[in-house]
Specification:
Helices cover about 70% and strands about 0% of the residues. The two termini are about 20 Å apart. The longest helix has about 30 residues, at about 110-140. By secondary structure, it is mainly alpha-helical.
Length: about 525
């Protein structure tokens, strides 16, 4: 699309004098080390954070009854599965890391893609990771302060240590990072299975008052269309993270098989766990008790586990620790993909010469999150940009329809019926319109934050003829960064990526090709 990344490749090569660890002729590239189990761990681990343990009450308090809340959990799970199905087609049609950023950029152009990346870099990932890390530190320190809240500085320090440790693990090895993800995802699933089993035991004892139809749909407050819509919005946010595997497509083993397979396994599994965990909760607590609890799983454990109730706070801590790891792993790949496309500094698109991990992108992710830990406004920022994050889900799925119209003959290893993206977009539009209606100021501020990226795009990306002194300064900083991190620009399959980009430009009508280029592109397309 742009010549930026290709030009920077030469800079990376020139600065790779430190990279003698690779034998001559052996290229440095991201390794395909994520198998099916690890792929499922990334999806499940990123969706299931602390929410289902701490406060699954957002859906219940707006649904106004237990029965309707369970229906909301099921429907939002189905809609999430439909969205994931659309992303599965896009992921194997546009086989590039970066997820929705890469798809939006390729389909709608550089500015649209940059705005998606801008809001992610500026707010979404740093704030989310900071909040998850703070939740982890809170549950670790709480037993040490049984009669009061842990000190604020202690929480932030432990959260910072958690981030630094996991950044080191991710920098050291992709395999280590995926093993950590697998282990902690397994741990949180075991904790939730324990909750579900205890719920089944309660039902066998006859403790199912709130599950009987007559009681399940008895409202504890009047039903309201606006509140029900808000319940669906809360449910949709609870499934956030379902698209994270698309950020690491290029590191998947056999992505054409494992990407859709991991999605088809993980989303139904998470929906099952969410629904039955909520069923288990209401076997031990009334809706009023559940809404009054600040940590539902802990209250549930205190009621049913007795001396073993310590299992629940530890489960929350383990869940959030795994959540930080998964978010670091995937968000760094998003920044890596953005830098490779010329939308972020080229240093972020480089990887270690021996470990083949995107160390600069990981350090950038860690530093931005540590900075967020220093501010008290991160929860406010999350509220502002949550709407924008959800907005781009719909834009991406709409891009699938646009791509079908503009490139009907493009090779698609998976091709779903267009009925599914239409269903997703109808649900998405309903929630989006309701969000704008119910919280216009919050949504407006979110849009304003996103639009601050427009001048940045035109000055930093679109403007080619920058002053020579500026380019020299950037080159020197890039070179120093390479020497410090021992990184180079990935070289493997560079020609293949260039051919793919030229094919997209030709079919989207944005760049003419010569006869020789066209022949080369058609050869790549045949593969």
């Amino acid at each position: 699309m742009t010549d930026g990344p290709r030009q920077r490749g030469s800079v990376a090569t020139a600065g790779s004098g430190d990279g003698a660890a690779k034998p001559a002729g052996e290229s440095v590239a991201l390794k395909k080390e994520i198998g099916l189990v690890s792929a499922c761990g990334i999806i499940v681990g990123n969706i299931i954070g602390s929410g289902i343990f701490v406060s699954p009450k957002g859906v219940l308090e707006n649904a106004s009854s237990v029965g309707l809340a369970l229906i909301v959990w099921i429907i939002t799970g189905v809609i999430t599965a439909i969205g994931a199905l659309c992303y599965a087609e896009l992921g194997v049609t546009i086989p590039k890391s970066g997820g929705d950023y890469s798809y939006v950029k390729d389909i709608f152009g550089g500015l649209a893609g940059f705005l998606r990346l801008w809001i992610a870099v500026l707010v979404i990932y740093p704030t989310n990771q900071a909040v998850i890390a703070l939740t982890f530190s809170n549950y670790v320190l709480q037993p040490l302060f049984p009669t009061c809240f842990p000190p604020e500085n202690g929480l932030r320090l432990l959260a910072a240590l958690c981030l630094l440790l996991l950044t080191w693990v991710n920098c050291a090895s992709v395999r280590w990072a995926t093993r950590v993800q697998d282990m902690f995802t397994g741990g949180k699933l075991l904790a939730l299975i324990l909750i579900i089993i205890m719920g089944i035991v309660q039902i066998c004892k006859g403790e199912y008052y709130w599950l009987e139809p007559a009681n399940a749909f008895e409202p504890f407050q009047d039903y309201d269309v606006g509140l029900i819509a808000l319940a669906f919005l809360q449910g949709s946010f609870a499934y956030g993270g379902w698209n994270f595997l698309n950020y690491v497509t290029e590191e998947l083993v056999d992505p054409y098989v494992n990407l859709p397979r991991a999605i088809f396994i993980s989303i139904p599994l998470v929906t099952f766990v969410y629904v039955f965990a909520n069923i288990a909760y209401v076997t031990a607590m009334s809706p009023q008790e559940l809404l009054a609890s600040n940590a539902v799983a802990v209250t549930f454990g205190e009621k049913l586990l007795g001396v073993m109730s310590w299992i629940m706070p530890i489960s929350v801590a383990l869940s959030t620790f795994g959540g930080v790891n998964g978010s670091l792993f995937t968000s760094s790949r998003l920044f890596f993909a953005g830098a490779r496309e010329g939308h972020l500094p080229s240093l972020l698109a480089m990887i270690h010469v021996r470990r083949c991990t995107p160390i600069p992108a990981l350090l950038f992710t860690c530093i931005s999150t540590l900075l967020m830990l220093c501010t008290s406004d991160m929860y406010t920022l999350i509220n502002y940009v949550g709407f924008i994050n959800y907005l781009f889900y719909g834009v991406t799925v709409a891009g699938q329809i646009v791509l079908r119209i503009k490139q009907p003959d493009m090779h698609r290893p998976i091709k779903i019926s267009l009925v599914w993206p239409v269903i997703y977009l109808l649900f998405w539009a309903f929630l989006l319109i309701f969000s704008l209606y119910s919280e216009p100021v919050v949504c407006g501020i979110g849009l304003a934050i996103m639009l601050t990226g427009v001048p940045v795009y035109f000055l930093g990306v679109y403007w080619d003829n920058k002053p020579q002194c500026f380019n020299t300064f950037v080159d020197k900083i890039t070179y120093l960064g390479q020497k410090f991190c021992v990184v180079v620009y990935p070289a493997e399959e560079e020609k293949k990526k260039d051919c793919y980009e030229e094919e997209m430009e030709l079919k989207m009508g944005t760049a003419p090709l010569s006869g020789a280029d066209e022949e080369e592109t058609s050869k790549y397309a045949d593969h």
